[in-house]
Amino acid sequence: MTGRLNILVVGGCGYIGTHMVKALMAAGHHPITLDNLSTGHRDLLPGGEFIAGDIGDTALLDDIFVSQRIDAVMHFAAFIEVGESVSDPLKYYGNNVARTANLLNAMIRHDVKRFIFSSSAAIYGEPDYTPIDEDHPLNPTSPYGETKLWVEKMLAACDNAYGLRAVVLRYFNAAGADESGTIGERHEPESHLIPLVLEVARGKREHIKIFGVDYPTPDGTCIRDYIHVNDLVSAHLAAIDALMEGAGSGVYNLGNSRGVSVREVIDTAARVSGRPIPVVEDRRRPGDPAILVAGSTKIRNDLNWQPRFESLEEIVRTAWKWHASS
Ligand code: UDP
Asked: What is the extent of the structural domain holding 294?
């Protein structure tokens, strides 16, 4: 374990950022959230310092890095809608790539050289094999996935050129909520499966559409690897510890290595909530691979990371607690 660290959490008011801030405080660290509130929620930030602003603001970044010693930066401030990235790619390249370059530039200028980056399984595109390990070819099928690939390339070049040490975490499907029920997933508009299904359970939507029932999977629906948000967060804490102890850069998949179909998610949510969840079978959503499951041996071995939430049922139960109270 490392002592009290000053961690700049970019995007700390978002779904994963708020859980990260809570865990950093619980671990005795000092989180400083920088968030432009374009999609984040100030009211959900569990504590620490808050700075309203954008990573495109060079003067603000200089100010932050001059006024306090930052031990490491965690970056959660990306746009994440695959469909929107197709219809408005410059929004994605501008924020996810160009402004991230601006952030990295400021870090290098101020000699801050530890970085944890939220990458995505979207970087792999349509998988050649499953489970997907980190050596799988990178063929993103959307501008969103491309932006993650560009940043990963930038980070490798920055390590080579400036000695920036970056841990890249390729998230599979983040899900669930803190067990306290005080923070959770709140996207506007919502597009992710579990929150949508729970909105149906609450009667806020009439039905859930299943995007494709003719996939080459046992029940015909897509299979994904759902990982609890607090398990994602604990991987970041392990990454920080490793960087503080002098570890080099690394790239890791972050999933449970357990595939679950869309129908299984819906059945689980019906069981957990005790409510009916009407289903409408719809066409496939463009760009959805049939199966995305993480091989996560590398992070288990290198960072000694273990997920606490093994079953989908537990994950959905925490999400339901949040949804039922929010
Ligand atoms: N999905 C669905 N209906 C919805 C939303 C999602 O059938 O209303 C499916 C989607 O096609 C995918 C899975 O649920 O197979 C997970 O989708 P989500 O958008 O939550 O995450 P993604 O895998 O795209 O990151």
From this structure: 193-225+257-325
In terms of Cα–Cα distance, which of 14, 6, 28, 11 is closest to 72? Answer: 6
Cα 137 to ligand 1 centroid, rounded to whole Å: 23
Which residue out of 190, 262, 263 has the highest number of ligand 1 atoms within 8 Å of its CB and is therefore the one to mutate?
262
Tally the domains of the chain. Answer: 2
HSE value, Cβ hemisphere, 13 Å, CA-based, for 143: 18
Question: What is the 257 CA–ligand 1 centroid distance (Å)?
Answer: 18
Catalytic: 144?
Answer: yes
Cα separation, 230 vs 190, whole angstroms = 20
Supply 228's token pair.
């609890």
Q: Where does a domain end: 215, 239, 254?
A: 254
Provide φ and ψ at 132, rounded to 5°.
Answer: -85, 125
Report how far apart, in Å, the C-alpha atoms of 281 and of each of 69, 219, 234, 259, 284 are.
Answer: 53, 13, 36, 21, 9
What digits encode the pLDDT tens for the residues 141-187?
A: 999 999 999 999 999 999 999 999 999 999 999 999 999 999 999 88
Distance 208 CA to ligand 1 centre (A): 11
CATH number at residue 297: 3.90.25.10
Put simply, whether the predicted model's pTM sits higher than 0.85 gets the answer yes
